[in-house]
Amino acid sequence: MMEIQVVNYSSNWPLLYEEEKKALLPILGKNGVAIFHIGSTSVVGLKAKPIIDILLVVKEIQLLDQQTPDFEALGYEVMGEFGLPNRRYFRKGGDKRTHQIHAYPYDCTQEILRHLCFCEYLRQQPEISLEYGRLKQQLAKQYPRDIEKYGDGKEAFVKRIEKEALLNYWKNR
């Protein structure tokens, strides 16, 4: 197991996302609805594990399943639902993961909104973003080789912020 690293924000992360987006768009073709940079690397100034998270929104998830060879050709490991119904999860880089993709059909709005609102809320609330970065850094030091405990340590904070983010989203519509 590789050591969990939480690092300072890098201005290179949006560039890495854009580069990967260009490689993914031809695979998605007409099945693609939208593609987003999500996760901590999408929030300027936020400390993060240096892994680019990408959200794909597609018309037909089954069509995406048929494109396994295309994703593998880009270096992705195709993981299927990986514990979340309707999602398709892809990861790249093996033990030194560089990218991960979360793909959902367009009508899986709860999951799509959850990801988008969380990131947007952190962008709008720098003090919460800083708090989240400190928590992640502390957990990485506390559990340097235990991704389960690292994730469990973030869970209450993430759930609370997701709730605030979604309420904020609906209040501002």
Structural write-up:
By secondary structure, this protein is α+β, with helices and mostly antiparallel strands. It has one domain (13-171): 2-Layer Sandwich (Beta Polymerase, domain 2). Helices cover 49% and strands 17% of the residues. It contains six helices and five strands; from the N terminus they run αββααβββααα. It has helices at residues 13-28, 61-65, 68-73, 109-124, 126-142, 147-171, and strands at 32-38, 52-58, 76-78, 88-92, 99-105. The chain has a five-stranded mixed sheet with strand order 1-2-5-4-3, sandwiched between helices. The longest helix has 25 residues, at 147-171. The radius of gyration is 16 Å and the shape is globular. The mean pLDDT is 96.
Along the chain, the helix and strand elements come as HEEHHEEEHHH
CATH second-level architecture: 2-Layer Sandwich
Hey, roughly how much beta strand do the residues contain?
15-25%
Side-by-side strand order of the widest sheet: 1-2-5-4-3
Low-confidence stretches: none
Number of strand segments: 5
Identify the CATH homologous superfamily: Beta Polymerase, domain 2
CATH class descriptor name:
Alpha Beta
What is the gyration radius calculated from CA atoms? 16 Å
Assembly state here?
Answer: single chain
Helix content: 40-55%
Could you name the key traits of this structure?
17% strand; alpha+beta; Beta Polymerase, domain 2; 6 helices; 173 residues
Provide a quick synopsis of the model:
This protein is α+β, with helices and mostly antiparallel strands and 173 residues long.
